[in-house]
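Re: weekly structure request thread

Next one in the queue (896 aa):
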Amino acid sequence: MLNVKTSKYEVSRDYIERVKKIARESRTETLARLHASAEGLSTKQAMVNREEYGTNQIVDTKNDSKWHFFIESFLTPFTIVLILLAATLLIADVVPSGQDDVSTAIIIVVMVLIAGIIKFVQNIKTSDAVEEMLALVSVTTNIKRDNENQELPTNEVVVGDVINLSAGDMVPADMRLLRSKDLFCSTSYIDGKFDPKEKIATKTPRFEQVNNYLDYPNIVYEGTTIVSGSGTGVVFATGKDTIFGKKIRDENKRELHKTTFNVGIKSITKLLMLMMVIVSALVFIINGITKANWISSFVFAIAIAAGLTPEMLPVIVTSNLVNGSKKMAKRGNIVKRLNSIQYFGSADVLCTDKTGILTQDKVMLERHYDLTMQETKRVLELSYLNAYYQTGMKDLIDEAVINAAGDELDTNEIQRDYNKIDEIPFDYNRRRMSVVVANSDQNHGEHLLVTKGAAEQMLEVATKVELNGKVLPLTKERREKILEQVEDLNTDGMRVLLLGYKRNPAPVGEFSVNDENDLTLVGFLTFLDPPKESAQASLAKLRRDGIDVKVLTGDNEAVTRTLGLQVGLNVNIIYSASDLEGKSTEELSKMVEECNIFVELTPELKTKIIKILRTNGHTVAYLGDKINDAPAMHASNVSISIDNAVDIAKESADIIMLNKDLAILEDGIRISRNVLGNIMKYFKVILTSSFGNSLAMIIASIFLPFLPMMPLQIVVMNLLFGMSCLLIPFDKMPKSYLDKPKKWAIRRLPKFMIIFGSVSTIIDIITFALLFFWICPQIAGGNFYEISKAQQIIFVTSFYTGWFIESIWIQEIVIHVIRDKRFPFIFQHATPPVIMGTLFAAIVGTILPFSFLSKDLAFGPMPQSFLLVILILLLGYVLLMSLVKILYLQKNDFLI
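Done, posted below.
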């Protein structure tokens, strides 16, 4: 199949040909092609279509079934190695005399079942938890089903569905328009173009448009956002088959493995696997040469491989993320993408607009002045026409105008007197929006274009002013006077828009931005959105947490400066869009660092600032809830939105706040850092333990006349240790760790592993010496080389018992020692679940050699007084590790 490559992704030739046919045929032909009706589908037909064409999901969920989880849980490198070990034991006689090869193999199979069941249960819990959280913030769309309009989740859309579209909606699938009215769309999320495009259902592509399928006037694609107007369309492609789906799928292929999170996990997995290969090969060769039993050495090497296979790593990492997401959900932050938690915890820059985040989100129309600064009903009436008849997203400003007009004017009479003809939607380059109305009462038939917008942009297209009922030229002096008045109002914290009009602008049906000229300015609209009482305290907490908050707003400098002073922002340097124009990359890199307030920004500039911050090495979080925020959200490391945001913002978000409050965000950041810390803690624990044990195994293999430990004992020990590590997600990081952003420090892990892993190896060597030269000779009745075969078996199995008990305690204690730079158990301690879990695993490991399983596990006799030796060794280990931590932190900034 041929593919056509666009600027960002590839689309099949067949798909493009199909779109061309649909765009050029009549709506009746399209409905017939899709076996659909303008009245929509029935629920029964929708189910049939879902089976035939697939679900409306870009991410493939076929691997999320319980059956898949079950297979995935048991077909792992760890279980395969264990099964290979069990099979080898049945074939070769490698178990010490008095032991049963079959019972040993059975125990290993039980270990496989236990490990598989644990992983299966964890995967199911994770899947259920994610689904529950996503259900809280699902995006819906208006579908015509069973002859009525229904709000249904977007993933229920099927080919043939008829969808109703209105301002603020995100198009849920690729559609052919059946009807449209003043329908303007933003396709920035698909093609990076920010200017709204008008879509007309009755218009087919012109000849010169045929090859530019993204601009077909009667086709809208998934990911498109409705800026204004309304429409109805029939779905012809869903999910992965849509343009948006193909883009996301291609981007995922490129980006999935590039995130620091995935790179970090892969690096650690590779390190463990490399260690497994090297250590297994070394112990096989060393034991084969020194013990002259290559079969036993091979089995032992397999067991070492099983012990070093990072079987629990993905389970524990995911468990950490899910546990953190549950805590965040309780605090009002819903995590849509689990991997975003690590970016949230690593973020050192938060970019946000000011409206609703730093302000109360309660915009009020304070004044409706004419140009002489007198309040007049004429200005309010014209502003009402503009706000009421526009079909875009009615923001807080429009609502404030409509509410004020409802209190002061007879709005029913205004609606009777004026009929809407057309509109020109707002965009962030013009910073204006217009409606065209017809006066049906006096001056019957007169068309009136009413425009409101930012002062400078309105002055660009105005040529006249209305003063005291007279229309006069807009002279330079009058222009400067208007700007002075606007600045005075801005300084008082008011947001100011200018209002203008134009009589009989153009023929009906042909209105465009070109008609916004020769306007007559009539007055000012001043709005007030007071700062939140909690904003200053929340910003102070974020600064304490090492988060640099940068305000990226489309508002002007004076209003933003006033607000910044009220909430405690640094307003010494403020850059506007004009300040950023024409600057080199080096200059921009410096500007984004020295300034925390950027004003009069377009969506393109917001996106550019975020990209530069990331290039400078920052981890950037972006908080947005409007249509124009989607590109910036996509450019950030972690995107955050609000539950009542527009569809495209919610769809773009990694995390959704249930309330627009920075205090909730700050809680989420600290929880994310705790998650990040627990993941890093597990990595360092597992690497330290694995390296220490591996080095001890190699040294023991060189000097001992027998295998250092039996394969089954290694399997049991590592299973106990892995189970205890499952509780690490329930641990907590110290306050000092949560106070600063933390990034992945993967490059330091090998150094950390060698330094701290070697400490446990030293304790192991001391244990070897005590067992071989003192304790085991007393139990067996003499030196290993001077006693009988039967006594040697007692000697060896007793040695296994001693080292097994010591190893399991050292492995469990390492969790408590490494988790904090302070002395364990006295100046710092883990949470109760972690303490109980590690203590339980260590006690079980201590009891096993004395239980009814001792024979099957190849354990020998050991006096209970040996536990006192273990206690002394553990104390020595803790003291030595504490000393090493002090030395390590002299040259390194942090332990975890």
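Confidence is low (pLDDT under 50) at residues 1-8, 94-100, 253-257. Residues 662-703 form the longest helix (42 residues).
Next request, please.
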